[in-house]
Amino acid sequence: VTRRRSGIEREEVRLAGWLVAPALVLILLGSLVPITATVWEALHGRDLRLPWLGRPLVGLGNFGEAAGDPRFSAALARTVTFAVVTVPLELALGLALALVMHAACRGRAIVRLAVLIPWAVPTVVAALVWRFMFDAQAGVVTAPLRDLGVVGERFDWFVHPLAAWVPIAAADVWKTTPFVSILLLAGLQTIDPELHEAARMDGAGAVRRFVTITLPLLMPALVVAAAFRMLDALRLFDLAYVMTGGGPGTATEPLSLYAFIVLMQRLRVGYGSALSVIVFLLTFGFALIWVRALGRSLVGERT
Amino acid sequence: MLAVVWVAGCAERDGVTRLTFSGSALGPEAVLMRRQLARFGERHPGVRVELRVTPDAADQRHQLYVQWLNARAPEPDVLQLDVIWTAEFAGAGWILPFDADAPDVADFLPAALAPARWRGALYGVPWFVDLGLLYWRTDLLPGPPQSLAGLRDAARRVQDAGIVRFGLVWQGARYEGLVTVFLEHLGAFGGGILDARGRVVVDEPAAIRALSFMCDAIGPGGFVPSSVLTWQEEQTRFAFQNGDSVMMRNWPYAWTLLQDEAESRVANRFAVAPLPAADEGRPSAALGGAQLAVNAWTANRGLAWELVRFLTAPEQMLERARLAGQLPARRSLYDTGRLEQALPIPIDQVRRLLDAAVPRPVTPVYSELSEILQVWLHRALSGQQTPSTALHEAAREMRMLLARAGLTPEEQVP
C-alpha cells in the first residue's frame, strides 16, 4: 500500500536530507576514502623495503599472486572453516541462554548481568586468560586431563596443528555467546505470550510450541545474530594473534593475520593491501548474499 | 628576516639545538642513557639531547621506525638499530652512510661489523653485542659438552635419571629467536643460510642434518620438551631458573637474573659456553646486539655523527657494560683489566664465545627471509613436515623472494 506524501511531508524529507548530510560526509571520509586508497594500493606493486622497485601499476597482479599463494589459500580455508564451526555453536548456546534468561522470573537482572560479563572483557585479555588455562604445565584445563591420562605427560595444545584450534574456538564461543543471547532475548520478548497461551489451550507441548511458535518468530533475530557473528568470525584476528601467533607453523593462521604479517612485517604494501581487499570482499559479499537471500524473504513474509 | 630563519630551523629553539635519540630505556638502561646524554650535552654547550623512548619489543620498535622514516621525519636524529635492520634501512635509503669522516672501525669485532655494512659502505656503528650462550649446570655436568653428541648424551642421562625434567631448553616459538637457535645448530654442522655471495644454501645436507638434530631432540625419547615451540627467552629462563633443565640456550641478560638467589634455584651452579659442534662444523654463538645509525633526514648531520662517536667510544661502552651488563663491541676492551670488573660473566668464558660469534645474513629483506624460515622450521619441529621438505620449500621461497627483490647473485640469474 503506497501513501501519497503531502506537501508538509515532502518538506520534512528535504529537511531530513540536510540534517543527515554531515553524517553522510563523515561516513564517506571515514570509510570510503580509506577503502579507495587500499584498493588503489592493491593495484600497485609497492614494497617499503625495496624502494628501488618503485610503485609500478600491476593491475590484478597482486590478486593473481594470492591465487597462487598456498599460504593464502590455506588461510582462507581455515578462516571459513572456523566461522562455519563456531557460529552454529554460538547460535545454539546463545539460544539456550536466551531461553533461560527469558524464563527466569527471579533474579532476572543478575542472570543477565552474569551472562554479559564475557562480552565485556576485552578480547586480548580474554585471549591471555584462555591461553593460560590451556597452558601445558599449569593450565586448569590441561592438568586434570593429564592426571586422568586423557593426554600424555608432555602434551601441549599449542604444539599440535589441530589441538591448537581448541583454545581459540573455546575462547571465541565463550566470548561471543552472550552477544548472541542478548540479541535473541530481545527477539523472544517481541513474541506475544498469548500465542503460547492459545497453543497450550490447544494441547501443544513445550517442544511443539518451541518448534512452531518460538523458532519461526525468532528467525529474524537469528538471521541478524548469525550475520553479525559470521562477519566477525571471518575477520578473526586478535584471538589467533595473541594465543598462537598463527602457529604451530601456520596451522592456526587466519586470513587477517596473514594480511597483517604481509603488510606490517614484510612491508609489502601492494600485496598486503590486496589481501585486505580480499578479506573485505569476502565479508562484504557474505553480508550482501545473506541479507538478500534470508533477510528479504523474512521481511517479505511479515508484510 | 632573522626571525624567519630562526623559526625555520625547528630543531633550534631559544638558541638551544635539540637532538633526539631513540632506543631502549628500561631500568638500568634508562639511567645509563640519561647520564651519557647529559654528559654529551655538557661537552657541547648549546646542545640538548632528548631521549625518545620506544617500545622494547623489537617488532613494535621496528614498526614505529618504519613509520617515522618512511614519512621522512627528521627525528629521531640518532637511532638504535637491531643488527638485522641495518641493511634494510640502508637499502631503503632511510639512514646515512658514513662518508669521509667514518670512525676508525679497526677495533670493532668483525662479526659485529659485518651487519653494519651494506654494498660496501658503513651505515651503522656497533654499540653492544649479544651472543647466544649455552648455560649449563656445573652441579650436574662435569664440564661443558665438547660435541653435539656429547651434549645429547649428557642431557639424556641426567633427564632419564629423573634428576631434572628436561635436558635442554631453547627458544622454539615462531619468531626471530628460533632463527638464532637454528643458526647455532647450522654452524655446529658446518651449514649456513646464505653463503658469502648471497646464495641460498639452507637446503644443503649440512642444514638438513642440523634441523634433523633439532627435530630428534624435540621428538619422542628426546631431551627438549615440545612446549619450547611456544617459548621465548623468558619461558626458557624460568624453566632453567627453577632447576627444571640441565642446559639452556639463552642470551647474556639471563646471567644476572639467574644469580639472584631470591628468585633462582641455580645461583652459582651454572656456567656458559658456546653450543658445541658436530664433527663437520664449529662451535657457534648467534650474534645479536645493537648498532647506532643516523636518520637520513636529520637536520643536524654533523652533531648526530658526533653523538654516535661519543656513545660508541670506549669510555661509554665500559660504563654500559658495568651498569647494564651489555658486552662492548670493541675488541680491545676485552684485553684490558677494566672490563673484568665491569661484566657479570667471567671474562674468559666471554672471550671463548666471541670467537664463536656468527652473524645472520646481511640483506635488506632479512626479516622476510627470516619469517619464511621461521614458518618452515616451526612446521618441521611440530611434525607437520620432514626437515628435508621444510628446508627445500623454505629455500625455494627464499630464492623467489631474492629474485623479486632484484638481489639474486649474478650467477643465479636464469
Question: Can you put this structure into words, describing what you see?
Answer:
The complex is a heterodimer of chains A (303) and B (414). Chain A is flat. The mean pLDDT of chain A is 89. Chain A is mainly α. Helices cover 73% and strands 0% of the residues of chain A. By secondary structure, chain B is an alpha/beta fold. In chain B, the strands form three sheets. In chain B, strands 1, 2, 3, 4, 7, 12, 13 and 14 form an eight-stranded mixed sheet that branches. Chain B has a four-stranded mixed sheet with strand order 9-10-8-11. A two-stranded antiparallel sheet of chain B has the order 5-6. In chain B, helix 7 (176-188) crosses helix 8 (205-218), helix 7 crosses helix 15 (366-381) and helix 15 (366-381) runs antiparallel to helix 16 (387-404). Chains A and B meet through helix 11 of A and helix 3 and helix 15 of B.
Which helices and strands, and how do they pair?
The complex is a heterodimer of chains A (303) and B (414).
Chain A: H1 7-42, H2 61-67, H3 70-103, H4 108-120, H5 123-133, H6 142-147, H7 165-189, H8 193-201, H9 206-234, H10 238-243, H11 255-265, H12 269-302
Chain B: H1 2-8, E1 12-13, E2 16-23, H2 28-43, E3 47-53, H3 58-70, E4 78-82, H4 86-91, H5 110-113, E5 117-118, E6 121-122, E7 125-131, E8 133-137, H6 148-160, E9 166-169, H7 176-188, H8 205-218, H9 233-241, E10 245-250, H10 254-258, E11 270-273, E12 285-294, H11 301-311, H12 314-324, E13 327-328, H13 337-342, H14 347-355, E14 357-358, H15 366-381, H16 387-404
Parallel strand pairs in B: 2-3, 2-4, 9-10, 12-14
Antiparallel strand pairs in B: 1-2, 4-12, 5-6, 7-12, 7-13, 8-10, 8-11
Helix pairs in contact in B: 2-12, 7-8, 7-15, 15-16
